Amino acid sequence: MFGIKDSYVIIHNSGTVTWQPGHQLEFSCNIDTTYFPFDTQKCTLEVISWGYNMGDISFTPTSSYINTLQYVENSEWKLTFTSVASEDGPPPNTKFLMHFQRRPLYLIINLIFPVILLALLNITVFLLPQDSGERVGFAITLLLSIVVFLTIAQGLLPATAQPRLSAICIVLILNMVMSGMITVSVIVSGWIYYKPEYYDVPNWIKKIIHFKLYRRRTNKNQIHVQTVQNEKTIDKPPIDGDESKVTWQMVAKYYDRISLIFYVICFMCGHVFYAIDVVKGG
C-alpha cells in the first residue's frame, strides 16, 4: 500500500478530497558512463495507476518541477534539473525527471591527472642515457602503474559498455598500449646501442645519418658565415673526424630521437581527442 497506514484525507466543502501520503521509495536508473567522470545522468520515476482508467483517476501535478526543499545535497552528484509531467494514459501516470551531474574534482585529481602524468613520464624514458641501466626498468614500472590505474577506473564503473565504452577507459587502454610499445622500443634501442662493432651498419642507415649530419653542419656554417665572416655559405661542408664513421651508438641515439617525437605526437593526439570528445559530449 502506497503511503502511511491510516493516513488522513482532507475533504473540502467543494467536494474535493485531498490525500497527501508520505512514502520513501528507492529506485535505480541506467547509467551512461561514456564521459565519466564528466557525465550527467537522467533518471525518470514513473508513477502508474494500474487497474484504473482515465475516467477514474487523473493525475494533475501542482507544479512543473520537483519540490527540493527537503532535498539533501550529495557529495558526488549535483541535482541540476527536475520536471514533472502527467499523461492521461492508459493507464494514467506521472513522470518525474531528474538530471544529476557528477562532481568531477576528486576524480580529476586522483585519476585523470596521475594518468596524464604517467603517460608523460613514460615518454621521457628516451631522455635517459643508455649507460644508466634504468631505462627498461623505468618503462616497465610505468607500464604496471598504468595497468593499476586502469583497474581502479574499471572498479569505479559499472560492468557495461552501453552505449559505448567510457572515454577514460579508452584513454587508459591506449596509454597502456603505448606504454607497452615504449617498453619494446627501449629494449630495441638498448639492443642497437650494445650491438658489437663487427656488425656493419646498413648503408641506408648510414645515408640517413650522414644526411642529418650534413644538414646540421650546413646550418651551423650558415649561421657562422652570416654572423661572423659575412661570406658565402659552404655548399657541402665536409664531415670530418669521428662524425664520418657511423656507429651503432649513433644509430641508437637517432632511434631514440625518432621514438621520442613519435610518442609525443601520439600522446598529444590521444589526449586532445579525449578532451574534444568530453567537451562535445558534455
CATH architecture of the largest domain: Up-down Bundle
CATH class (first level) name of the largest domain: Mainly Alpha
Instruction: Bin the helical content.
Output: 40-55%
Q: Determine the mean pLDDT.
A: 82
Main sheet: which strands, in order across?
3-5-4
What is the helix/strand order? EEEEEHHHHH
Question: How does the overall form come out from the CA principal axes?
Answer: rod-shaped
Number of helices: 5
Low-confidence stretches: 236-242
Strand content: 5-15%
* Cα distance spanning the termini: 41 Å
Helix/strand/pairing category: alpha+beta
Question: Could you name the CATH homologous superfamily of the largest domain?
Answer: Neurotransmitter-gated ion-channel transmembrane domain
Can you describe this structure?
It is a single chain. By secondary structure, the chain is an alpha+beta fold. It folds into two domains: 9-103, Neurotransmitter-gated ion-channel ligand-binding domain (Acetylcholine Binding Protein, Chain: A, Distorted Sandwich), CATH 2.70.170.10; 106-201 and 247-281, Neurotransmitter-gated ion-channel transmembrane domain (Methane Monooxygenase Hydroxylase, Chain G, domain 1). The chain has five helices and five strands. A three-stranded antiparallel sheet has the order 3-5-4, with no helix packed on it. A two-stranded antiparallel sheet has the order 1-2. α2 (135-156) packs antiparallel against α3 (167-193). Mean pLDDT is 82; it is low at 236-242.
Key descriptive features of the protein:
rod-shaped; Acetylcholine Binding Protein, Chain: A; 13% strand; alpha+beta; 3-stranded antiparallel beta sheet; 282 residues; Methane Monooxygenase Hydroxylase, Chain G, domain 1
